[in-house]
Amino acid sequence: MIMEKRYSQSFKETLHLGQEEKLEVQIDSGQTGSLFLSLDEGSQTKQVHIVLAPYAQCDLMVYHAQKSPIEFECQIELQKEAKCQMGFLDMEEAAFDLNLKVTLSQEGAFFDLLSGQLGQSDLQKHNTIEVLHLAKHTTGLMRNFAVLLDRADYQMVATGNIKKGCKEAASHQTTRVLTLGKDHKAKVIPLLLIDENDVKASHAQTIGQPDEDQLYYLRSRGLTHRQSMGLLSIGYLLPVLDRIKDQELKKELQQTMESKVGLYEDR
Question: What biological-process GO terms show up in the record (predicted)?
């Protein structure tokens, strides 16, 4: 099944992708709006294709809500001066494979990704992300955050790909992984493929455990060990919720997040 959406005027919509295997979105020239996309129970393979025409703008939030394993493929094309700010949040106890490819096809296109994942025990979270620059004055930003519990398997391959002729393009990426459990696997591969001299590009990554002094302080304030860990986890995941424009929905997901990381334990 295929769901098709076309926006020819300002928009604000929540879409649920369940049994549908594919979503096609067209945002017409100059249109501005926000989309909340929920990946619901249903098909284990989901595909999304979004095209932003010249001067279009979209605040896109993708939320993984499926409790069974899923492979999610997302392709986004941004044309002249189009802008997309994307958030992605995955806290489910289910294996998840993400393949995201963003193409900045025309001059001035701008893409900014902020992702957060909670790697539950014994589960795989594998991600492959590429931002491809095909025109000058394009910008691609990637900020990825993950919290890993016991035996979680996390992988992030993030690529900024700037082709020849894309003068004054910018590609920047950061991946931060907080490890809270034992026997986890964390593999982060930041790649910069650059075939042009006049560009700006950078990558950074950190993988590490919580600060013991912070944990000691939180425990001294009466929090359990799990609550303390949860509070530190929130610092990694909470910023993603800023991509949600609906304040009631944002509040609801924050409560879900706090519950999943253990803040409400023993209350």
Answer: iron-sulfur cluster assembly
Q: Which of 6, 3, 54 is nearest to 27 (CA)?
A: 6
Q: Is 216 within the bounds of a domain?
A: no
Domain that holds residue 75: 2-210
Residue in 42, 93, 100, 40 with CA at minimum distance from that of residue 64: 40
CB atoms within 10 A of CB 209: 11
Mean pLDDT score of the chain: 94
The span from the CA of 176 to the CA of 147, in Å, is: 9
Residue 37 falls within a domain, yes or no? yes
Distance CA 238, CA 214 (A): 18
Q: How many Cβ atoms from other residues are within 10 Å of residue 22's Cβ? A: 16
Rounded Cα distance between 260 and 116, Å, is: 13
Residue 236 tokens, joined: 């990694």
Structure tokens at 142: 């990637």
What is the spatial distance between Cα 64 and Cα 46, in angstroms, rounded to a whole number? 11
| Count of structural domains, the chain | 1
Report how far Cα 65 is from the mean position of its chain's Cα atoms: 14
pLDDT tens string 6-59: 999 999 999 999 987 899 999 999 999 999 999 998 888 999 999 999 999 999
Among residues 224, 227, 186, 191, the alpha carbon closest in space to that of 208 is found at 186
CA-CA distance, 232 to 227, in Å (whole number)?
A: 9
Distance between CA 80 and CA 98 in Å, rounded? 26
